[in-house]
Every structure is written in C-alpha cells, then in structure tokens.
Please model this.
Amino acid sequence: MGYGIKRKANFIKIALLILILLGFAIFSVTQGTVKIPVSNVLSIILSSEAEASIKPAHIFIVENVRLPRILLSACVGGMLAVIGTVFQALFKNPMADPYVMGVSSGAAFGATLGIVFGVGVSLASLSLVSMMAFVGAMVTLIVVYTLASAGGKIATTSILLAGIVVNAILSSLISFIMIMYHNEIDRIVTWTMGSFNAASWEHLKLIVIPMVIGIAYMISLSRELNVLNLSEEDAKNMGVDVERVKKIALVVASLLAAFSVSVSGIIGFVGLIVPHFFRMIFGSDHRLLLPVSFIGGALFMLICDTLARSILPNMEIPVGIITSIIGGPFFLILLHKHKKKMEN
Amino acid sequence: MGRSIKNDVKCESKEMSTLIQVNKLNFSYGKEEVLKQIDFAVNKSSFVSVIGPNGSGKTTLLKNLCKLLNPETGHIKIDQQNLTHYKAKPLARTIAVVHQGANSTFDFNVGEVVLMGRYPYLNRFQSESKVDLEIAETAMAQTSTLHLRDKNLHGISGGERQRVMIARALTQQPDLLLLDEPISHLDIKHQLEILKLCKSLNESHGLTIFTTLHDINLASRFSDLIIMMKEGQIVKIGAPKDVITIETIKHVYDIDVNIVLKPYPMIEAI
Model:
C-alpha cells in the first residue's frame, strides 16, 4: 500500500471536512429568529466597512451575537472530541469521555456556588459563574490527579475510580445546594445542561490560545497514542516513555476540558461519541483521527447548536439535549452497520 | 539491510559475544522474593528457553531483562552496557518483546501494527519513510503475515496474531527477541509454527531468542541453552541434554519421567 497515496488521501479527507464545516458555519449565520441572506452575511464577514444596504441590526447580530457563538460552539465541540479521543486511547476504555477526571462536576459545583452566591458579579467581561466553573474544574482535577497518583506512577483504573467518586460527592453537594436555594434550581439546571447563549468574543479569546497549543500537542502525541493502544507494557518496550506521556496528556486534556466547560457548561455525548464515529469511518490511527475528530466535533456541535437556537420560536433548547437526541440514534445506526460489516 | 551487516561481523573474542549478562539479580514484589541470586550469561545468536513450574519467576525474569521491572540488587548488562543506562528508544532498538495475550483496544489493521515497530527509530515530527515500510514488509514476509496486512487485528486467529506481534518486534530490528509464553494458547500446529519461525530467525539472522516456555520437550528440541527455574532460583542452566534429566525434572516438577533421546532429550511422564 502506498503510504504517499494514503497521506494524500488523508489530506483530501481533512480538506473536505473543513469545507463542509465552513459551508455550514456560513449557513448557520443566516439562521435564527432573524433570517439574514447569505449575501449580506458574506459581505459583513468579508468587508471591514459595512455596506449601506445592510440593516445595522443585522450587522450587530452577525458580528456580536452569531459569529462569536458559532465560533465558540465549533471550538468547544472540536476540543471535546479531541479530549475524548485522547482519553479513550490513554485509558484504553471506549467509555471514557472528557469529564472522566471529574472536571464536569467540579465545574458544575463552582458554577453553582457562583450562581447562588454571586449573581451579577463579573470580571474582565467574564461572568463570575464562568470563572467559578473554571476554578472548580481545576481544583477537582488536582484532587483527582493527586488521589490517583502514587509513587510517581498513575494507574488508569485509579484515575477512573477517583473521578467517579469525586463526581458522586460533588453531584450530591450540588443537589444539596439546589434544595437549600430552590429559587436558583432553574439556573443551575440550565447551566449544567450546557448552552452557548452567553457566547461572546471574550469567551473565544479565553479559550483560543490554550486550544491551539493543547490540540497541537495532542496531535504531536499521535504515534504514542497509537502504540499505547496495544498495551502499556508493549508501548514501553517499543520505546515510549509511558508515564510521562500519560501524565502530560492527562493534564493537558483535562485543562482543555476545564476551559470548554467554563464557557459552555456541561455538554455530554460529543466527547464520547464523535471519536467512535470517526474511528469507524477512518480507522484508529491518531494522526488522522485527531484532526478529523476536531473538525467533526466542531461540525457536530455547530449543527446541534444551530438547531438549539432556531428549532423552537422564541425559545432556546439547551444544546446538551440536542447533542444526545440527534447524535444518539445516528450513532446507533452506524454502530449497527459497523458490526454487520465486521462480522462479514 | 543494516540487520544482516550487523550480524555478519562476528566478534572474535568470547567476551565480546556475550549479549546478556546477569549478576546476582534479586527481585521482590513487596516482601515476597521472586528472584533470588540469579546469575547467567547468554551469548549472541543463542536460542534460550526458560522453563519451570508456574510461579517459578520466569516471567518476572523476562520483565527484568526488558526493564519493565527493575532489580532490587544485582545488575543486568545487555551488549556490555548496563541496562539502567539505556534510554527508552535505544533499548527498543536492541530488545524487542512479545508479551502474552497481545491485542488492541481499538481497530487497527495488521499493517499499521507492524509499522508501529518503527517507533524507536522516528522522532516526533517524522513520518515513516519508504525504508521503514520496506522493513515492515520484510518482517511480514518473514513471518508469513503479508496477506493479513489489511485485516483487523481483532479479526485474525491467535496464531496469526502471535506472528503479527513477532513481525512488529522484528520491525524494531532488535539484537534480542524476548517472548513470554509465546505458544501457551496455541494448538500443536501453531505452537510448532511459532517456534520454527523463531528458530529460523535465529539461524538465518543470528537473532538471539530468549523465551519462557511451559513445554519441556519443545524447549529441549529448539533451544541451545535452557534455564531451569524453581522458586525464583536457577536450578540448572546448560544444553538440553544437561538440563533435562530424570533428576532435575523430579526435583523441579516433582514428577517421575523417562528420558528418550531423539537426539535431544524428550521426557515421557510415567
């Protein structure tokens, strides 16, 4: 098999996915309560000076509402998918998702405290809730990591177990707070279901640098992740510094998860399913799988969020609900087909 | 290829031809002593089998040799160099290991898995060159796995998977191939197939083979050197005819046997 040909084919696959993503992103800008024609959208995005024929309200909607939201949802979707792929490879566990280290419940706990005790406070245009979510995620990450590491080594089962237990404790605490402050139940529940309705350029600025560095680092680890897929012992004997790779990848991926969660809330399913989806189509080689998961995750999240904000008039559905309702059945069909193919 | 050149240059002095040198090796899991005062040396291009009952320390010894476990006291030299001085990648270019029950979590095809053996030769941003591909193909040809290259690792038989893992190990172009119970889950046909493959690699390429085995007769038939272990110690080390005797088998396995020479010694349980 010509690997030159394979590399070229991979490049084409990635390029095609990017084109689809761009196309859908532009379509998404036109959609919403106010429909804006494609031509107007393009001229608002591409030219610095606003054309006289376009309504100022449209310019405002595109530039300050829809564009940041679309970019943010795509970035978060892409990150979650990459984190999920990396965790599944590191833990050798198809059930692993971006929140295995308790980042989600840590963020939710932080956000809950922010909602209950600090309404309206904000710093540098970021809401207190976002910041508290980030702090909560980081603290949980450090706790789980410390609990699971012993003697310089990290046992993956310990991480999973520590993550589950910390999750359970924090979820109970959140429930407790909700009962104590039942006026805020609505806001807490909505936050935990995940949404991009508060998306802003500030959110984007916050995540874009960690995202670029983190994703690039993950992609540079592709070959190690491939080798780890055999077993940790095999990987060591093939020259991989397994403990180092595990530690750094766990921390970097969880950091990215913390950033995602703090700007969007907990959006399930994307980080769990998108990796499997693309593994079935493109195989498990992380050199292709990681970039493809990023683009695919971005596209999937963008589609779901577009539906979330335009499917019901005058009301927004939390995007976490859409990801599972749309993604679930789609995935089950693919899984069924894949199993059939494997049996033949 | 580099491999054949390397092995054509046979070293003159006896000392230089030692590949594995183990001195006073002790290892324990917690308080349980698993290896006690292990001493032995293996020459280049030998075929070595480690035999002994379950729990005698065979696998632990093998894991010490490939640095998955570190000796408590004593030391191991590979090619005159202390094992602790090897970095991960150079070690993987010297020693390749086939562990028990190899498999993968996610779908990879055979060709991809074999090519992973080039990992210790590539830096972070390098992709496999044509030469790397040729090396992987040669390894697949040697192990008769070329026809499997596009098959999923999950979708092939146990014997095939073991050959694929050997191909992957050969792709590392090692001087020493360690195998942990490579035939324990295979039927008799595939057992012979794997050991014959190892023997042919040993004879034609001078690859040193170090394997743990349960089957005493197969060990006797294929090995130049047998290390017989009991309770973490070496009971006897030497050529099959010196190690496989009525007395040692009685001592190590507590069974009575007859020995038939054909010409290597074979045991018959009584």
